[in-house]
Specification:
With 176 residues, the chain is of the alpha+beta class. It is built from six helices and eight strands; from the N terminus they run βββααβαβαββααβ.
């Protein structure tokens, strides 16, 4: 089972084994992608938008472990949550692809229950969090196009279409 919320394009899946080092075991591992300067350095605003979209800049991969998926724990709606049931082979392809998006194993930062790693690809208009998620889910066999995943709306449109595909046997969960 894999889930994706359309707000931050966080890919989540249940963790097979609970984290025994924590007082409360985590239930989900989440993967996301962002622009480093915007997300980790707080360089936002209009200048940050222009930089992030029009100049290839450093990307970061976020790997988090949480009790709930992001869409269910955020106070900032609207987050549409899509859940798809995929084969073990598709799940392993997705995990292999996601691990391949990290350029080095040394984390850049740790915030809450998330660790941020340098990404193999730069962040720009044609490679944002939505395209990152679409490409990863395509590796899992979902019929998604990163080219058409410019916004959360266009990604959600593709996810809704994929949810109607009988070979994926998905379940779509409405926003929390």
């Amino acid at each position: 089972m894999i889930s994706l919320d359309t707000w931050h394009a966080m890919i989540a899946f249940p963790i097979d084994e609970p984290d025994r080092s924590s007082s409360a075991p985590h239930r989900y591992e989440e993967w996301g992608y962002a622009e480093r300067a915007w997300y980790l350095e707080g360089r936002q605003g209009i200048g940050g938008i222009v930089r992030a979209l029009f100049w290839p800049s450093e990307g970061v991969v976020e790997v988090g472990h949480y009790h709930q998926v992001w869409a269910n724990r955020t106070p900032q709606p609207p987050a549409e949550l899509f859940t798809f049931f995929v084969s073990d082979e598709a799940y392993h392809r997705l995990k292999r692809h996601l691990r391949g998006t990290i350029s080095e194993e040394t984390p850049l930062a740790s915030i809450d229950q998330s660790v941020f790693y340098p990404a193999t690809q730069s962040y720009h208009l044609f490679h944002t969090c939505h395209q990152y998620a679409a490409l990863a889910l395509r590796e899992a066999g979902l019929p998604l196009s990163p080219f058409w995943a410019f916004t959360r709306t266009s990604l959600a449109w593709q996810l809704k279409r994929a949810a109607q595909s009988p070979e994926n046997h998905p379940v779509t969960v409405p926003p929390a």
